[in-house]
Amino acid sequence: MPHFVVIGQLAIASADFLLQDLPSSSGRLDVLLRCVRAALLVSHGVRRDTRIDLCLNGGPRAPRIVRIDGSAARFLRPDERSLAVLLGKVLAAPVAGSDFVEVRPGVCVAEGGLLRLLDELRGVPAYVLQEGARDLRGVEVLAAEGLFFLGDHLGFTPEAERALAAFGAVPVSVGPLSLHAEDVISVVNNELDRRGATTLSS
Amino acid sequence: MPHFVVIGQLAIASADFLLQDLPSSSGRLDVLLRCVRAALLVSHGVRRDTRIDLCLNGGPRAPRIVRIDGSAARFLRPDERSLAVLLGKVLAAPVAGSDFVEVRPGVCVAEGGLLRLLDELRGVPAYVLQEGARDLRGVEVLAAEGLFFLGDHLGFTPEAERALAAFGAVPVSVGPLSLHAEDVISVVNNELDRRGATTLSS
Question: Which of A49, A181, A191, B63 would be B113's cystine partner, CB 3.0–4.6 Å?
Fold first, then answer.
């Protein structure tokens, strides 16, 4: 399965955000919510073979990771507000610890940040989406079960860049412009679709 | 300039929708709002050479068209709620008639539907995004200043399909899966970017 990981530098790790002012009140959690739609939803269906992790590094509860598995997720709606409501419920659940706990069908949360995630995923083929890197289309063998790391609107911190390089994540790009993370996911998914890598179920 | 046209079969042509329940109260205007972001916004910038028309065919004020020009638009924000607030203001403005009236910088509204639009745009190279059609990547010459017609979550009506065929719009697709309209726009923009067709300005 393709497994996207989006790192929110300031995205809030608790439910203390306002639905009526999501961008300002949540450390731009809206960016990450839109990535969830792009990663998991297609027309009238869910990408059952796809997973996305949101690394939330903002607020006093940080760092935490929310994981959404297309294979088990239910009732996912594409609009930002519905996804924000879902995330709020997950982040407000009385769970703790560094193991993933399923709070809603297919939606889990765990304490920890990128290093905890990399430790769990050691050995998985990985790519990091970076401007100016080698074009994804030119990568001959693209591991469909690979990890795809993306930054948010602030990009990656130097620490994250170093950790991803040490992990062996291969830098790739999706074209000449710097796009929103969700558009990058759409283009990566499209490239994998064209290579026959994904499975769909409504 | 690439010029996207998204046809909302039921999308409301007035401001009579609820921000806290956009999908249900607006005839899925949320689908079209997400297309605006995908068409016009990149990381920290606007696609100044791109335009999008939203054909709104729902509610008593329909049909109306909202046009957003990247060349003139200001204060465009990527989150769905901000875009809904903007559309609400535009749709509530006391303007009428079949000529486009600029209500906010770069954002115009006019009465009329697809046929009015096709009449205005006669002679412009046009593509219609359809599942199973010829792959966009294989289209040798892709008019960067072309029209790209997309349906919403309901697709095209038979009337719209006939009108687009009569207009000479060339059916193209973006891969093996049926994607959300906004993802289709992301992929089309990416293909045009790669062909060196677009201009960006922050």
Answer: B63
| DSSP β-ladder status, A64-69 and A51-58 | antiparallel
Contact predicate A90/A17, CB 8 Å: no
* ipTM of the complex in this document: 0.96
CB contact under 8 A, B30 and A175: no
Burial class of residue B202 in the structure, from the number of CB atoms within 10 Å of its CB (0-12 exposed, 13-18 middle, 19+ buried): exposed
CB atoms < 10 A from the CB of A122, how many?
A: 9
Question: Which chain B positions have a beta carbon within 8 Å of A38's beta carbon?
Answer: 183, 186
B48 touches chain A (CB under 8 A): no
Which chain B residue is nearest to residue A199, measuring alpha carbons?
B177
CA angle B12, B131, B154 (to 5 degrees): 20
The pLDDT tens digits for B60-84 are: 999 999 999 999 999 899 999 999 9
Alpha carbon distance A163, A167 (integer Å): 6
Greatest CA separation for chain A: 45
On whether the CB atoms of residues B95 and B141 are closer than 8 A, the answer is no
Between CA A202 and CA B5 the distance in angstroms is 27
Q: How far is CA A182 from the centre of its chain?
A: 9
Q: pTM for this structure?
A: 0.96
